[in-house]
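Students often ask what a 'structure token' actually looks like in practice. Rather than answer in the abstract, let us consider 5'-nucleotidase, a protein of 258 residues. Its sequence is given first.
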Amino acid sequence: MLALVTNDDGIDSPGLAVLARVAARAGFDVLVAAPREESSGASAALHGAERDGRLLVEPRDAPGLPDGARSLAVAADPALIAFVSAYGAFGPKPDLVLSGANRGPNVGNAILHSGTVGAAFTATALGMRSLAVSVDAEDPRHWETAEHVAAHALDWVARTELGRRTLNVNVPDVPPAELRGLRQAPLASFGAVHARVAEPDDDDTALVLRYEGTERTTEPESDAGLLARGWATATLLLAPYADASVEVPGLDGNTLDG
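Now compare that with the structural description of the same chain:
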């Protein structure tokens, strides 16, 4: 069983090791393939850099990986990494894709813009189980709490038939003893997401912006509200599908004649 670990924070983020350790302890072989540069806010974009028609990939160790984990830096957004992994770009098709652990929350309807969630959605659409994990801090101090919650979530994901669903988990940046627990939560009206803004070909001017709504106080039972009160949250998301519950009126092409 193979687990692909990716993220949108880039290959140098310590959050990759959190999910790599969780996957290894669960008995998976671990492959880390993450963007060589930060791709926050990339959603499910399929952007990548090529040379001679080949995606640019180089071996590079992410910090803190468990022994035996293979690690690659890829010049691509995380969704493209998940996409090409399904077609053998890095070896056998993964059985599971873990995305994160992200620096900063991915809650509410703003997850539409998240590269972390975008990678998980892409994996699900291509027949791989997936889990996205984020921590509610730009520079987390308590990765061990995220690791504890992610291990619990992975245990459930690995033994549950999710179909077209992915699980999105957010964890407060608190010591394990201060974690109130894990609760399933609906999406906030907007929520929060990070995005990277940079001048073309000039990474020194890159900024990471945080877009956040007010639902932490106005929607206390949403994922954003519960996270702010010290709960880890879990939200099942349904990958894009055709909804036939409402009928769209058809159009006869012959009506345009004459």
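One point worth highlighting: The two ends are 62 Å apart (CA to CA). Ask yourself how you might have guessed this from the sequence alone, and why that guess would often be unreliable.
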